[in-house]
Amino acid sequence: TTANDPSEGKTLLRYLDIEEDDTSSYQAFVGSFIFNPDCLNQFRLYGKEDGREATGVSITVSDAFFSEVAAINKGLQLPDAISKEEEQKEQAKESLYRCIYIDPHTDRVVSVGQKEEYIFYREDIDITDKEIREYNDYIEKVREEVESCLEELKIEIAKLIKAQRTRRDKKRAQQILSGLLIHLRYLVKHVAFREEQECRIIKVEKVDSKNDKVKIDAGSSRMYCETIQLRNDKECHITDIHFGPKATGKELFEDILKRLDLKKKISLHQSDHPFFS
């Protein structure tokens, strides 16, 4: 509800010709991640302090922050040969998914969240053109598979709605379908946001007084769900912190990391993107 994209959760419904929205009290809570930790566009849109562009930071987390199992109901799909402690640890993590970018005017899956070519070269000067081509080929196969699956889904939903006898039944069927698809709805985005190359974790929770998983932050008028901590006494999932072009305090923060004995675990970077406030 606080997203800067008014089409959040609606792009897929439009693609599937579903005109009715879910009327239940279940809501999707989104955690967003990108492949490029030093992105000027993101620093300008989201990396703000006191409303000033490019003054925030970008936090990079390790793979271990996310679940190894890509599943909505991880409890049903965890391997059998796993200890109780490992199971609890894995259950606390969230699965990460690439966003799907659709052009509503043509109903084409234009792309899925991916790493830009120049990012590879920044991260590894020894990477070869062949490796990047292989990555691009893999991403294109993923895009094609996603497009094919969505086309099949569209056909099946059209059949189901057509089978309903009355207008009331059709409306109710669409409402139920929009609720069942809530996870996927918030992974499908308008092509206008393609440059963000986003990945997301999606948590769906019932919004009522009995659900203590949904937290309320009255100060900023928002609701949210917690994930595992980026750092606690046992683990630190933070690997890098990029300070925006206009962000200050890097030197002081470096001293704090030394004090916490985290200097070797977390690398600090100051973005040198050209930006005038």
Can you tell me about this structure?
The protein is α+β, with helices and mostly antiparallel strands and 277 residues long. The protein has eight helices and eleven strands. The chain has helices spanning 11-15, 40-45, 84-91, 117-123, 129-162, 167-180, 182-185, 250-259, and strands at residues 26-34, 57-61, 97-98, 100-103, 108-112, 188-190, 198-206, 214-217, 222-225, 238-243, 267-270. The strands form four sheets. It has a three-stranded antiparallel sheet, with no helix packed on it. A three-stranded mixed sheet has the order 2-10-11, with no helix packed on it. The protein has a three-stranded mixed sheet with strand order 5-4-6. A hairpin with a 4-residue loop joins strand 4 and strand 5 (108-112). Helix 5 runs antiparallel to helix 6 (167-180). The mean pLDDT is 90.
CA-to-CA gap between the ends? Answer: 29 Å
Taken as a percent bin, the fraction of beta residues is: 15-25%
Characterize the largest beta sheet: strand count, sense, and whether it forms a barrel: 3 strands, antiparallel
Q: Measured on Cα atoms, how large is the radius of gyration?
A: 21 Å
Based on Cα principal axes, name the global outline: globular
Tally of helical runs: 8
> How much helicity do the residues have?
25-40%
Q: Spatial order of the strands in the main sheet?
A: 1-7-3
SS-based class: alpha+beta
Mean pLDDT: 90
Number of strands: 11
List the uncertain runs: none
The succession of helices and strands, N to C, reads HEHEHEEEHHHHEEEEEHE
